[in-house]
Amino acid sequence: MQSFGALISILANGDQTGGAFNVFDVICPAGFSTPLHIHYAEDVAVYVLEGELTYFCGDKKKTAQTDSYFFQPRGTPHGFRVEGESSARILYMTVPAGFDEFVIEHATDKRFDCTRDVARYKIEILGALPE
Predict the structure, then answer these.
(1) What 3-state class would DSSP assign to 55?
(2) Sequence spans of domains, the chain
(3) How far apart are CA 43 and CA 57, in angstroms?
(4) What is the distance between the alpha carbons of residues 70 and 44, in angstroms, rounded to a whole number?
(5) Tens of pLDDT along 68-125?
(6) Residues 43, 95: contact at Cβ < 8 Å?
(7) Cβ distance 50 to 88 under 8 Å?
(8) Which residues contact 5 (CB under 8 A, 6 or more apart)?
(9) How far from 122 is each of 85, 113, 129, 131, CA to CA, in Å?
(10) Domain spanning 2-127 has what CATH number?
């Protein structure tokens, strides 16, 4: 399914894991970036299968290339962007589950409004990523 400009496949949803976690396979096009945001309900772990990302977590900025991993704990401002002219593919895990419901709602409900609806999922959008 398409969500936020990325192609997202849910590999493990909350029902399958008893609410413990979600796992997503995400293909992000060249130039893709998330906003700087905070998850208050879940931790996020990302494994880079292909491509290169710049990620932000708190006041840190780092590069993540193929076969690297990074962790973004709940309550910490974070986000990432795809670098270069190629897409990136990541495994994206949230603990506990629940983010799958957000992805599905965003992809399927034409009335979904990020400004209004992200708060229901305990996510705060802070703005664009730093340079």
Answers:
(1) strand
(2) 2-127
(3) 12
(4) 9
(5) 999 999 999 999 999 999 999 999 999 999 999 999 998 898 888 877 888 999 999 9
(6) yes
(7) yes
(8) 28, 29, 32
(9) 33, 14, 19, 26
(10) 2.60.120.10
